[in-house]
Each structure stands twice: as C-alpha cells, then as structure tokens.
Model the fold of this input.
Amino acid sequence: MDELVIEARSLRKVYRIWHRRERIEALRGIDLTVRRGEVFGFLGLNGAGKTTTVKLLLGLLRPDGGHIRLFGNPPGRPKTNRLIGYMPERSLLPSYLRLDEMLELFGGLSGLSRHDLRTAVNQALETVNLASVRRRTLDTFSKGMLQRASLAQALIADPQLLILDEPAIGLDPLGRKELRELIHRLHQAGKTLFINSHELEVVEQVCNRFAILHKGQILAEQPMTALLDDRYYIIALAKPADDPTALLTGLPQTARYQPEPPILTIECRTVADLNDAIDALRQRCALISTVNPVTMTLEDLFIRFIKDGAGEGQLRSQAMAAPATVH
Amino acid sequence: MIYKIFKQTVREALRFRYLGVLLISLAVAWFVFCITMTIFFNRTLDIKELRLWDLRQHWLNDPISQGEYYYSFINQLNPEEHREKSWRRYISLSFRSSRFLFLTTTCLLAAVISSMMLNLLFRREELSLYLARPLDRLQLFTGRFFGIYAVLLFFLFISHLLTLAGALGPQWRSGLEISALAFRLEAGILLGAVALSFCLAPTVGALMRGAGTFVGTVFFMFAATQLPTAMGGWHNLFPYPMPPNAPLQTSLLVGARNVFLLFVPRLFASYQAFVEILDNVRGESALPLPALLTINVQDWAGNWWWTVGTSAALFALAAVIWHRKEV
Done:
C-alpha cells in the first residue's frame, strides 16, 4: 500500500506562444504522490492544468521543472507504459473498427501475443459489459458505450495503474452507476487509479484520496474521509433578526446570516462550539426553530477552495476558514 | 510492431477515400479528354519510334504557331498537311498537358493530401493513444510515415495507369518505359514531400493549423531553391534566359509558380545552382549554365539518387523532430 506509484516533485510546465510572445504557466511547481492501491481523484476547473499533468505523467509532454517517477521510472518509456492504461477524455478510438478489432489493435500495440490477446479481449469485454456487441463497429455506439469501449482499451493489457481522464463525462445515471461499480471492482482487484475529473459526485463516491488543482497549483490534497470531519450547522430562526450585525456578534467569524428565510450557517468543529454559538444567539433573544448538522460534500469543499484559494494557492487541507454557502 | 502500426495507418489513410477519388477523377477526366481527341483525329500516338526527349526537343524547336494553323485551315491549301499539323498539335498538347498533370497536379496534391492526412492522422489526441503504449517513438514514426507513403503511392500509381491509357490509347504498352520513369521520379518526389510535411507539421502546424503544413512546405521549398537562383540572376551570373518550364528561374515570380512543379529534385538543382554560381564567380565554369539549370537537371541520370538521397536526409530530420515532439 505504501509503494509510490506516482511521484511528482516541483512539477512545472510553461507553454510558450512565441508568435504572441505569451507565456502560460500551466503548472507552478506541484507535488503529487499516489500510492499503490489508491483511487486518487484529481479535481480542478477547466484550464486548471489537469490535462497537462496527465500528459506529463504519460510522457506526452516534457516538464520545464521538477521530476516525475512512475513505478520508480521516468514517464514515457516503454517499460513504464507497459504498466499503465490510459483512457482519454474524448473517445479517440478508430470508429470504423469493430470493437474486438480495436481491442486487438491496442492489445497488439501493448505487446500482447496472439494467444494472450484473445483472452485479454474477452476479459476486457466482460469487465465493461460489452461482450454482446463485440462485432459491431464503433461508429454505431452510443456515447456511454464508447466510454466503456475506451475503458476496455485502457484495461486490455491488464495495467497496474489506470489513468482515467474524465471517465464519467457524457454518461447517463445508469452509466455512472456502472462506472462506479467498475471502479470499485478494479480497486478491489488491487489496481491503482488516477481519475482526472470535475465530476465531483463520481469522485466523491469512488476515490479514497483527492487533490484540488487551481491555476497550476494544488490547493488541497487529503483523504476523502477528512470530509466527515468537516461539518457545519444550519440554524433556522423562527423570525428574522431585527439587527443581523448584532446577531452575529460573538459568533465564529465564519457564521453567515441569510434573512429570507431566516437561517444562520455556522461551522463548528465540536459540540461544545455549537452550544456556545446557541448560547450566544439565545442571549440576543433569537428564537431557534431547528438545528441541522450538515456534512461537507466534496462540492462544498471544492467551491470553497476555488473561491478562497484563487490567487493564493497556499491553502492546504486544514485551511477550512470559511463556511460553505447555503444551498 | 512497425508492421502493426504501418498496417493500421494504411487502413486509416485509405479511409480518406475522397482524396484518392480526387486524384483518380483528374486522371479519368484526362482519359476522357484524350479518348475524345483520339476519336476526333482518328489516330493514336505511336511512341515507340520516338524517345520522349527527342519529342520534347522537337516541340521546343518547332512550335506550331496559331497563325500557321489558321492559314492552312482557312485556305484549305493542303488538307493532309493541315491534318498532320493538327495531329502534331494534339500530341504536343497531350504531352504538355500530361506533363502538367503529372508534375503540377501530382506534386500539389501530394502536398495537400499529405498535409491533410498528417493533420488528421497526427492529431495530438490520436497520437496520445499510441504514445501511451509501450512503443518506441521511432517505431511509431516509421510505421506511420511509410503507411501514409504507401497509400499516396497507390493513388499515384492508379492515376498513372489511367493517364497512360488515356493518352496513348491502344498503344499504351509503348509508353510503359516512359511512364515507369515518370512514376519512379514522382515516387521519389513524394517521399521528400511527405518527409518535409512530417518535418514541418509540428512546427508550422501550430501556427496555421490545417493549412500550416502545406503552406510551410511550399514556403520552405521556395526559400531553399528559388531564392539562391534569383540572387544569381540579379548578379548577372546567368547569361541566357531560362526556359519558362525550367526548374530554377531567375525571376522570383516564375520561380514561385514553378515551385509547385517539383519538390525534391529542386534540392539537387539548387545545389547545382550554387556550384555553378561559385564556379562562375571564380571564372572556372566550363559548362554553359542553362544546360545545367534547365529541364536537363531533372532528366539527368543521377537525379534519382539525388532524389532518394535528399529524401532520406529529410526523413532522418523528420524522425529526429518527431522523436522530440510533444503531443
């Protein structure tokens, strides 16, 4: 479990558009570690640098600073790539090939022998549940089927590490459920998964660790279980406060008041903190109707980090400075 | 592994049927034109008795003027002579047009088609699927290069067969030798054109997207071949005027037109031009310049080896560039 599958240190990448004399700093010295058996979610907005990171991991781009090791080897080498399966964001599969032909092609390019190829194709098709359409050409596939076919090509050579770029994009609810189940199965089989996504719901349900990338910097990197520790409370008042500013005096700085309907959102780490807040409210004659604990979702956390971390990039997992917005 | 990539590339490239259809349509149009003319004059060309070079010299030295033609036509003085002259005019037209089709269209289309194919076959995303496999980059480059080259060569061969059949009618066998020579020359040209496109795709492709490779190819060839000759012309190093279809021109405008005619043999011609310019400056030149700088250069016995040599050098350069390419 402790063996490092991905290790990136001070990773930098700059794109130079020479005819416009522009420099775009896609990655600004990020550190990243993924251990064997982890399902790692790599989150970020569009343009955050996620795809650049994936390309650097695959050796498709060369870093301008820092270094990367996959299984202890530099990226892009045949020896390294033999252990990796890559599912790109868009389906780039040759649409004129039949599903089994496509898998044979990529299996062959991965170095599988003719005999192993047949077994591997059958196994991959069973895994993604597409065995019944193996003789159909890819141009007749729906988007969800193409995603699964793309996943099958990533699995064909039984890789140790799977790099999935936006695997849930374009999938319907049933497809997402199947994808989650599939990722769970792969995890149980001991595979390491690196999932690049902004589909937070999927990441929250399948990953056991995640990092948030924003403007080329990692804002947070923590285990998914940390979400359970971050909890806030919604306190509903029976009537609106006459003086909202006075109401918030003495409460944690993170407290927010919303007049219509009258709701207070307070982040409290302990029950004692919550009771202190309730005492303070009662002293100001606030009439409390309900108190609801809310566990932080990944979406809450993500938005928080993006909002607070924009331009700073120094925040780490402990920096839960402001409460989530009330939904 | 190279064979697998080659096979897949051929399969992929053959899907761009419309490009092959374009080439073959041109040849068919030419075929129909020749058949019509043959029926009209009720004669076919017997090329066995004449060598192509003699024919060409004959036409250059003895052009049939419009005035002469109309004189015989209007006065009806000698119907046989008129018929003979019309026939010779047709042969001349046939060969000039044929040459135009062979050289201009083929080279132009080779550049266009290879650029289009390269842009389609070497899109970053598609490449990433290959490069994420345990493949050596040189294997990928070689397989893809010769895959594309084989397809272009196939289309070229078909167009030659049609053109030959069209131009010579029932006497097509007599033209096999000349056609084989032309095909050999063009196959070499194509090798260079494709290699050049490979060289230029990663650099200028980013600048001008789809058209970049083609524009870059033409620009490169123009700069490499026409500029030195034009400079020689400006310094009065060429005492005789150039025939308009000569590979190198002292006029930049005519040179710009002719740059489309032949790609790689021009590198040889350019080299010859440099040698001649140097010799001329030193006063050591014993050869009449136009002899080397005219169409003779293309027909020189060693031209084929120069073509192959320069193409191979370009291929090596392309391989090095692509080895370092980021996708």
